[in-house]
Please model this.
Amino acid sequence: MLTESVIELTIETYQEVKVIPGQWALFKFQDEQGSFQRSYSIVDQDTDNEKTMLVFIIKLLEQGRGSSIIRNIHIGNEVLLTWIFWKFVLQNTQLPKVFIWTWVGISPLLNMAKYCTTEKKMFFSVSYKKDLFYEDKIKKINGITYDIHISRETIPEYSTWRINLLNEHFDPITEFYICGKGETVDAIKKNLSTLGYKNIYTENF
Model:
């Protein structure tokens, strides 16, 4: 558990798995109501001794069917991943990049930032200090600058209130990658578009 309601789940497999940073995997579950699927973004991947490890960050919902199963997963249990895909991926360009996310929206973007070799900056927002996770991993990303916001309480070493890009200045050709709740993503995209930026990629959850 990374917070009271966010879990880190690592899947190990001996099958060859290719992941483009930003993609998600489709899980197939079975419960008393039948089979169903859930998609979760891949936050990291690694291969060691022919074994591939895929790491996921998952928000556990109180009444969620997928969350109910994940709460009861134990080390050694098997899960079925049926597909890895999606088009919200890191672009293969040398343009500067800005990654913006709220809460578990970090999942695809942390993976992108890890493999990004150009100038890059992150903006990350949570409601309370207790909701913050992976700060150590963010700091270890090579060449990264970042701004972490705590929106509902004042903590001296963090920015207060929500992410606001209106006073920020970026190169006009910068690529923006935004992931989070729909209304937040839409608001940030609208602000960036108003400022004249064109290269904006988004993912809602």
In short: The helical segments are 65-71, 106-115, 135-140, 182-194. The longest strand covers residues 34-48. The mean pLDDT is 91.
